Amino acid sequence: MENQNNNSSLKTLIIVLSVLFALSLVYIYKLTTDVNTTEQKLTTTLSEKEQVMKDLNDLKTTYDAAIAENTSMSDELIAERDKVVALIEKLKYSNGDVAKFKKQFLALESKMKTLFAENETLKKDNTVLKVQRDSTIVVLDESKKTNKELTGQNEDLTKTVEKGSKLAIVNLKTAAYILRSSGKEIPTDKASRADVLKVSFTIAENAIAKSGDRKYYVQVIDSKNNVMGERQTEKFADKTLTYSFIANVKFNNKTVDLVQNVPAEKLVKGTFYVNVFDNGQLVSTTTFTLK
Questions:
Q1: Most CB contacts within 10 A, which of 36, 140, 180, 276?
Q2: What is the C-alpha to C-alpha distance for residues 138 and 213, in angstroms, rounded to an integer?
């Protein structure tokens, strides 16, 4: 009887130990799985963090290259580059949600694309303006080279006009005026007070010249070397002329007087040039000074 009780107790102990052993195996398996999962999450997080860090550094490099070009948008580019640098520093010391940094990176990248598109547009516009400016400078340089010679000739032309087939432009004059609300024009020698410049010249009588419609291109250049008025361009052979206005004339072999106003705005004191062109050929020039 005692042996039966001992056997029964032994069986019970073995069962309990087996259950405990099975439970310990389950616990160890779960613990190992949790550790592996945690390690996997950490590895994934580190990988994503490294990728975002690389993307941010690439973005900074792109901004550095654009800023080095020293464009008119440099201040805006620097401001955005500094935001990227600040985000890089935050990411270095962060153990949090990388997705938040990735979202901020995407926003900064989108802003960069917008700024770069605007920058490219400005570059193209500047290229067009440079071409126009260069063509104007060519004409200005040619005008100034012959200005001294033609200025001396103007005085002789006002007294004696030689007969010939080519029409002579004489009495080229320009004066500044203040415009009153009543329409009255008051002469002034002050650049800052001028509202208009009045350009006048005379086409001398020529009995043997061919009559008909004539077109003269008048160019008024301010003290800052800018062409005033309409600022339209016309091409003559290998030259491009930027003019202030066109004087259309119906010539019938008699003297013709022409007067035209050129709007004046924010003029700066100094010497002004006025040139008259006939089919791209400079035929008369003068200068005047405003205080």
A1: 276
A2: 28
Distance CA 66, CA 103 (A): 23
Single-letter residue type at 122: L
**Is 271 within 8 Å of 287 (Cβ atoms)?**
yes
Backbone angles phi, psi at 145, to 5 degrees: -65, -35
Whole-angstrom distance, CA of residue 264 vs CA of residue 189: 13
Angle between helices 74-92 and 2-68 (to 10 degrees): 160
For the chain, the helix, strand and coil percentages under 3-state DSSP, each to the nearest 5: 50, 25, 20
Structure tokens at 118: 């605007």
Q: Which two tokens stand for residue 34?
A: 């949790």
Helix-helix angle 98-159:2-68, to 10 degrees: 10
CA torsion through residues 123, 131, 276, 148, sign: positive
H or E stretch at 164: none
- Cα separation, 241 vs 285, in Å, equals 15
Question: 258, 261, 290: which is closest to 196 by C-alpha?
Answer: 261
Q: Which domains does the chain have, with CATH numbers?
A: 2-123 (no CATH), 161-290 (2.60.40.10)
- Assign 41 to helix, strand or coil: helix
pLDDT value of position 152: 64
Q: How far is CA 46 from CA 95, 99, 260, 264, 275, in A?
A: 9, 12, 76, 67, 73
Give the pLDDT of residue 48.
81
19/4 Cα distance (integer angstroms): 23
**Phi, psi (degrees; rounded to nearest 5) at 257:** -100, 135
* Helix residue spans in 93-168 (DSSP H): 98-159
